[in-house]
Backbone:
């Protein structure tokens, strides 16, 4: 049964797709980069997600004590037309069906008052000037920030109360790691099989403990928001 994950719990090893490669090993990613800061946000076409993706990319050199990856509710094949292997300095994990989001019970809420911070209001206002139209159903995916050890153990967990309730940039990610008592990477002796979080149309990934409410993100596709620059912040905070 899906439930919120906290320190001491363990995230299952899985295989994931990026816009430029398929069936990557999360086990290997952890072994290479742990402690790993894993941030879950909405689909990549969402203005808030695109804004933070750019900020993480621009400030990536500030991260010196671990790894970073961004999870988005987008289809890898849709993003592949614009996001190549050298576009971002960190992995972009695609989970369009929301398998991990459901497994970790990351909430989605309706209504701006329930999901927007002041920063989110500013970002969305600028995005609308560029032609962005929010989902008709008004449902917004809230974020989650995890810090994981090499064996998948959760060292830190924070469920965001608003769309922007995540580390502001990689300098903030580095500070988060420094504030934690993070153990040195030791690898993992766990021989459990990896599972796949991205399945083809009509397929349902089989992950122990996963709820049955698998659904595609209803946000716009990347090509509908192509006017938004990735590295130049198109939604600066107003003074």
Residues:
């Amino acid at each position: 049964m899906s439930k919120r994950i906290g320190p001491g719990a363990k995230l299952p090893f899985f295989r994931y797709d990026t816009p430029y490669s398929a069936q990557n090993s999360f086990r290997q990613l952890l072994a290479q980069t742990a402690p790993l800061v894993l941030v879950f946000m909405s689909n990549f076409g969402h203005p808030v997600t695109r804004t933070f993706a750019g900020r993480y990319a621009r400030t990536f050199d500030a991260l010196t004590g671990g790894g970073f990856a961004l999870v988005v509710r987008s289809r890898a094949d849709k993003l592949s037309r614009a996001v190549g292997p050298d576009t971002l300095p960190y992995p972009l994990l695609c989970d369009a069906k929301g398998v991990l989001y459901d497994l970790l019970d990351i909430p989605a809420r309706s209504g701006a008052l329930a999901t927007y911070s002041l920063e989110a209001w500013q970002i969305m206002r600028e995005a609308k000037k560029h032609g962005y139209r929010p989902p008709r159903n008004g449902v917004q995916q809230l974020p989650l920030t995890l810090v994981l050890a090499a064996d998948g153990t959760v060292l830190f967990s924070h469920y965001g109360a608003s769309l922007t309730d995540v580390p502001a940039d990689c300098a903030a990610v580095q500070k988060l790691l420094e504030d934690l008592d993070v153990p040195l990477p030791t690898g993992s002796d766990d021989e459990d099989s990896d599972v796949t979080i991205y399945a083809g149309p009509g397929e349902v990934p089989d992950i122990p403990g996963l709820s049955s409410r698998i659904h595609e993100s209803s946000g716009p596709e990347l090509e509908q928001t192509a006017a938004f620059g990735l590295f130049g912040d198109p939604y600066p905070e107003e003074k």
